[in-house]
């Protein structure tokens, strides 16, 4: 075991850069190239990857700190006795600066000697093995004067995005690529005109390259110098955050022990009762073995496999020597090569974060999440420093979008019906004659949305019956003078409310709601009755509470007050909440019957039509009786036909003989 301090690599000459995120904590097992911290300048943000694999034993930096090249980030405990970066640099022969200088394009060297200007073709540098990456932004316009390290184009692969900077001061003559074009390493992407003053930047880059073990120096180094690169670390892999779910099931082991895998390649598949998820490899390496088996229950933090990282480093080490031309472009991430695995520098460059790409300010890890979730970053509001979009911003956007989709816009619900039902085609009614566009009130729009939702979600059944109100009407007429003295207007409605309340007590199967989890029914031990009211603003349903505990006069008084408040627009939200059952009466308007829509989350509603004198057979003869048409619609998920039969029989009996209310 050895402890190594990981430091901030070359950050393109920037100083006092803000630390805006620390991605690991003490005790974490990290892999080579795993993001440790995120830095941000006034132009871009960048993730700093780990140069070593192992266990984090101490973190030396925090969010809000200022960092420079060489600032200590953390201490990592590694296996295999990895060497410190300094000896590796010392192992490089002194003449290493010569090949670095030779890496500058030949025309530039000639230009420096001549003291004139010349146009140079700029080629795409090493992309860390990625092919056919996409040009997503041209950062400057042709004719623009640029400085060394200023971003010229932005490329994006399926894993990361990266800026391609200017190798030195100059003027962009033209671009050879367009946004959306596919490019690969070595492709010419622009022409830059440089002068004698600008060419000085090229020799300046040579000492920087010499400070780190440059590619030619690595090739020239003796064989023992490569030993640290060959060191491999075996680490235990813990399960990541599972979104708060515990006890998920292992349903698949995707690779066999001993298999070489790539970063992000799936190792196991987990399944909860709601979804399945792949757990990917954190880096390139070899799977030593699994610590779980099919069918096991696991939770966040459980060790599921043993993994060896860094084994492929020696084979990849000579790769930088094959591409000396783009050395000035790759100068920024070069210090990462001082790690025990120099070849990791190329993938680190591919993962280099960018900010403000295509008008959006976000790092590559956030962009990767956005691609995976199909999120358009231009629609996400950033809450990070200077408006930077973070992963939490993307999660919040997705959550908000899902909530909006579930609730569905009121207008869309009113017109299309939702639930995948094809919308009603748009019609230009003006072609048939004169029209007027009348804006719907808020209440009308809410009612339309509620009715659509109820009709689509509730399997309605409606049963019909007639109640004999001859005796009730006679009793009500006899009580008219007395009720007026008490200051109460006695209509049929308070009798219906009281009868419904008593029927709900007698048949509790109607006084329920379906729980949102789909596995329970909520049995209510209170009786609150909703009264559907026609108001100038639209349909409203105030709720009369504890109707089963109140007398006829009190019910009549409170009902009249609620109806008046509804028509005057003075109802409070609480006055329209908590109903158990709704009564919708069209008696004053006429009609022989209708099918009312259940006012979900209630499970039933009573529709009352106009009473009529009808001949009724009493066993001996037909006699005239005042019959009231009733219709009960109910949610067939909660109520069966037999339940409604019992409820309806009880209700009709109570209305037919009001003395039963006292029983």
General description of the model:
There is one protein chain. The chain has 663 residues and is α+β, with helices and mostly antiparallel strands. The chain is built from 18 helices and 35 strands. Strands 25, 28, 31, 32, 33, 34 and 35 form a 7-stranded mixed β-sheet that branches. Strands 1-8-6-3 form a 4-stranded antiparallel β-sheet, with no helix packed on it. It is elongated and about 115 Å long. The termini are far apart.
The proportion of residues in beta strands is 25-35%
- Provide the low-confidence segments as ranges: 81-115, 196-231, 311-358, 410-418
Can you tell me the overall shape?
elongated
Average residue pLDDT: 78
User: Could you say which structural class the secondary elements and strand pairing correspond to?
Assistant: alpha+beta
GO molecular function: dihydrolipoyllysine-residue acetyltransferase activity; lipoic acid binding
Cofactor: (R)-lipoate
Subunit structure: Forms a 24-polypeptide structural core with octahedral symmetry.
Protein name: Acetyltransferase component of pyruvate dehydrogenase complex
Key descriptive features of the protein:
18 helices, Biotin_lipoyl, alpha+beta, dihydrolipoyllysine-residue acetyltransferase activity, repeat, transferase, CAT-like_dom_sf
Write a compact overview of the structure shown.
This protein is α+β, with helices and mostly antiparallel strands and 663 residues long. It is built from 18 helices and 35 strands. It is elongated.
